[in-house]
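User
Please review the sequence:
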Amino acid sequence: MAGLRRVFRLKTASRILAWSCILAVAFLSLTPAEQMLRTGFGGRVEHVLAYAATGFITGLAFAERGLSRVTLALVAYAGGLEFLQRFSPGRISSIVDFMFSGTGVLVGVGALALLAKWLPGLTEPDGHVLSR
């Protein structure tokens, strides 16, 4: 029973972290240009890094729904946010930026899939979640 509670706590924590990443990406994507925070990396590198981290964490949190579904949902989300940037003062939307965001999702979810092959049980105690 203690093991089940531990798994439940980890799953809950990973989902809270995933939703936090999803909201942070929205906030950073839709912030007006004059208030944007920059890391010092190029904007496209920021896209890849932000979406790779979000993809990895969200894939871990929702692996039982299938990594392909998580990937498609995050790529669609990236496209929606890129479109909505048109309505944020001083921001523009760009298909190239969307492609870098999508690449980040693929990198993050792909890294999770590779790691799960090397570390069975990473996402669930039985280790069968990613194979569905």
The helical segments are 2-30, 43-61, 67-84, 95-118. The chain is about 70% helix and 0% strand.
